[in-house]
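Support case: protoporphyrin IX containing FE complex. Customer-provided input:
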Amino acid sequence: MDSAVIDRLEKSFNALAHRGEELVDRFYALLFARNPQLRALFPSALRDQKQKLLSSIILVMKNLRSPEMLRQPLIDMGRRHVAYGAQPEHYPVVRDTLVEVMASMAGPIWNDQLTSDWKRALHFVSMVMIEGHQQVAGCACNAACSAGAAPAMAGA
Ligand code: HEM
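Agent response - structure generated as follows:
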């Protein structure tokens, strides 16, 4: 990812970082409103989960300039997600929901360029996680899983 994209990601995230709790609250509310079937995959109390999701986004943001630092943690996270019941086709749903919530919270400072930057960054995260998913023997893979594209780290 080039430096201009990273600058935009950092700037937009910094504008929302102090509202991190609201961000994850709204993310799960929208995710489950649109995809009620996903609720059963998550624990009934989401408090810890929300904090963990926020921490993982912060980890990604801190390492945008050294994505090789993210690779193994994201592979491991993707591997753990197999046991949670996550499927490769859920990843774009999570990505788009997160971007939509960020856009609606950011209001006038948001634009189409940021939507595209964030989708690209979260696509990279998803692709590495799906790579981990595919490493898990016996994962309940479907066609979307085995079709998972190789993560484009340099170009992402
Ligand atoms: C951008 C992609 C994603 C990120 C950054 C992310 C991040 C996380 C993190 C940090 C955790 C805490 C547990 C752990 O680290 O293993 C977690 C748990 C979980 N994630 Fe994700 N996740 C992503 C995509 C997904 C997708 C696509 C699904 C499928 C619906 C999903 C479902 C879950 C579930 C069900 C748990 C809770 C497991 C439990 O505590 O029982 N996640 N996620």
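The domain at 3-146 is CATH 1.10.490.10 (Globin-like).

Case will auto-close in a few days if no follow-up is received.
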